[in-house]
User: Which sequence fits this backbone?
């Protein structure tokens, strides 16, 4: 175990770029929003200064309106498509004047990451001082979401692109692609020069991705116009669970700091409304778990994915609902021949255990589920998630994602996508030290 931890630390130090971390070399050569949050949790165990710097740099990229971009292009690199020249974040009048970025965001993890830094820290007074210097930016980010991403005032925010979900190539988005007919773009993919094409999305899928961005760009990334016109407008249970978890962490931290009563009141109001709507609108009784909602076409997207169970991390379901839901998870995803937790329903025709979010196991989702299970006192299943996570990394290395089928691990080559991947290392360190 000590060896594994040592290797994980090496991966993080290798991907550290003077002020921020990249998810992995070549495939993802910039700073990604939610990756940075998970990475900071790993650093907190052995280098708190880097953990704090990671978050400081990330929050420095915030736009004037509170928006946080999903990729920050700190350096020129042509190993990634679509890069800064495609996204043109400066089209938005309030975008960062200092950094080029995308005009999309990612799951808002920063709030709960700050609380994790506090939990891990062995100098809590110092860490709280650091948190005081950045917490208002995170609050501003939440304000942005509730103000601009909730057109019906439900307490549930939308995403307008699959790249905002973090689960970029989930089969759930297939239902959205069926409603669209984008033009055929001419472009040079870079991802498939680093990673086997069978593990990545298709050319036609990329046409959809680029087209949604083009529509947003045409309207200078105006939130109002996006809400009105984007063919992709989804309420995602993982994304909203991250926001709710982060709301709660901000409440806890502001209380510890002992200031900002008004902000705490506002957060508590959001929290109450969001959790209520979440349980009402995103829970599917028949499926027995949470699902996505297609706000553009006003229809539920009735599929099971690892995102379906993530609300336990944010204490959203009641104890009874959580217990029944985890039973569904174990029956569908938890057979002895599978590692927990496949990213998509293994019984579905759309399941593909080798392809990017269409089936493989991801360390960050496992970490979310592990912590959620522990909160509900489901220690045995939590332990299985933890041991499965350690096993897939030990068998194969610090890959981006892993085959869920145990038989595929016999030759230790069931890790896919990028290697020496930062969040796989960071969250493994956290699991090993728990
Ligand atoms: C992939 C993942 C996304 C992640 C990014 C960088 O695009 O789908 O969640 O943030 O890689 O690691």
Assistant:
């Amino acid at each position: 175990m000590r060896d594994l931890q040592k290797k994980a630390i090496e991966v993080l130090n290798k991907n550290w770029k003077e002020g921020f971390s990249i998810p992995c070399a070549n495939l993802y050569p910039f700073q990604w929003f939610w990756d940075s949050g998970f990475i900071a949790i790993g650093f907190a165990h052995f280098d708190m200064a880097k953990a704090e710097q990671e978050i400081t740099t990330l929050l420095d990229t915030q736009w004037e309106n509170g928006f946080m971009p999903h990729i920050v292009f700190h350096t020129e690199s042509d190993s990634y498509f679509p890069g800064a020249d495609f996204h043109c974040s400066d089209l938005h009048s309030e975008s960062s004047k200092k950094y080029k970025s995308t005009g999309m965001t990612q799951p808002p993890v920063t709030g709960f990451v700050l609380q994790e830094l506090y939990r891990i820290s062995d100098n809590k007074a110092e860490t709280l001082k650091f948190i005081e210097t950045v917490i208002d930016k995170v609050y501003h980010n939440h304000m942005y979401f509730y103000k601009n991403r909730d057109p019906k005032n439900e307490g549930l925010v939308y995403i307008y692109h699959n790249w905002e979900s973090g689960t970029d190539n989930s089969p759930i988005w297939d239902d959205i692609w069926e409603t669209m007919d984008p033009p055929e773009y001419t472009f040079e993919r870079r991802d498939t020069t680093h990673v086997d094409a069978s593990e990545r999305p298709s050319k036609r899928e990329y046409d959809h991705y680029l087209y949604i961005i083009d529509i947003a760009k045409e309207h200078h990334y105006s939130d109002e116009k996006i809400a009105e016109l984007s063919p992709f407008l989804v309420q995602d249970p993982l994304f909203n669970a991250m926001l709710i978890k982060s709301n709660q962490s901000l409440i806890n931290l502001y209380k510890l700091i002992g200031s900002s009563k008004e902000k705490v009141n506002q957060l508590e109001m959001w929290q109450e409304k969001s959790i209520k709507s979440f349980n009402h609108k995103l829970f599917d009784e028949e499926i027995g778990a949470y699902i996505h909602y297609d706000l553009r076409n006003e229809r539920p997207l009735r599929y099971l994915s690892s995102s379906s169970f993530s609300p336990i991390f944010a204490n959203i379901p009641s104890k009874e609902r959580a217990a029944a839901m985890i039973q569904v998870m174990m029956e569908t995803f938890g057979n002895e021949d599978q590692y927990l937790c496949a990213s998509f329903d293994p019984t579905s025709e759309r399941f593909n255990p080798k392809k990017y979010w269409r089936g493989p196991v991801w360390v960050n989702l496992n970490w979310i589920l592990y912590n959620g299970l522990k909160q509900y006192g489901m220690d045995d299943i939590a332990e299985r998630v933890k041991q499965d996570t350690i096993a897939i990394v030990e068998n194969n290395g610090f890959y981006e994602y892993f085959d869920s089928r145990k038989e595929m691990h016999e030759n230790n080559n069931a890790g896919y996508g990028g290697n020496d991947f930062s969040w796989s290392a960071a969250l493994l360190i956290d699991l090993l030290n728990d």
In short: The two ends are 13 Å apart (CA to CA). The longest strand covers residues 71-73. Strands lie at 31-32, 71-73, 100-101, 234-235, 283-284, 289-290, 292-294, 299-301, 401-402, 415-416.
